[in-house]
Amino acid sequence: EYSCEYGSLKFYALCGFGGVLSCGLTHTAVVPLDLVKCRMQVDPQKYKSIFNGFSVTIKEDGVRGLAKGWAPTFIGYSMQGLCKFGFYEVFKILYGNMLGEENAYLWRTSLYLAASASAEFFADIALAPMEAAKVRIQTQPGYANTLRQAVPKMFGEEGIWAFYKGVAPLWMR
Fold first, then answer.
1. Which of 23, 59, 91, 95 could form a disulfide with 118 if both were Cys (CB 3.0 to 4.6 A apart)?
2. For the CA atoms of 165, 167, 171, 173, what is the dihedral angle to 10 degrees?
3. Which of the 8 DSSP states describes residue 100?
4. Residue 80 above 90 pLDDT?
5. CA distance 42 to 74
């Protein structure tokens, strides 16, 4: 007995939920490290090393400053995980059905790679808006402190494109 039928809506929902948990929670847990890494990339003179970056951030913003960008990180990577894990299974079944059972087995590695790449394409589109907001919050002092402040400001200044400028680098990554 299985908890759900392979390829059913419940199956896809459970896969997507697994993606939310595995991507959203883990990326949110390392927000302080990501914040310091991003700041080191943007201002290497000020943030000379990981330890120095933590020290400078705590001195300037307090311990709470290490959590800047947690909301877009959680939302963005949860959406990416949902799409990555859920769509991977959708594309794996779709491509497998297109190839037929025997060819799907014979070409399973290529099938899995194609399904993974297809899922990642859509997952990165889901991630890009929140990643853009996160980077602005974390690396541009005074721009915005929260997601609620960043999103309307970004949209007002640059329109929808502000949220998708980073999608091509995500695809290349």
1. 91
2. 70
3. -
4. yes
5. 22
Query: Among 118, 173, 129, which Cα is nearest to 154's?
Result: 129
Question: In angstroms, rounded to a whole number, what is the distance separating the alpha carbons of residues 150 and 130?
Answer: 10
Measured from the Cβ of residue 88, the count of other Cβ atoms closer than 10 Å reads 21
Distance CA 123, CA 133 (A): 17
Query: What's the CATH code, domain 8-170?
Result: 1.50.40.10
Q: What is the pLDDT of residue 24?
A: 96
CA distances from 146 to 65, 68, 78, 96 (A): 11, 8, 18, 43
10 Å CB burial of residue 145 (0-12, 13-18, 19+) is: middle
Give the C-alpha separation, 48 to 52, whole Å.
6
pLDDT at 110: 98
Rounded to whole angstroms, the Cα distance separating 47 from 59 reads: 12
121-172 per-position pLDDT tens digit: 999 999 999 999 999 999 999 999 999 999 999 999 999 999 999 999 999 9
Q: Is the pLDDT of residue 2 over 80?
A: no
List Cβ neighbours of 104 (8 Å cut-off, separation of 6 or more). Answer: 95, 96, 97, 111
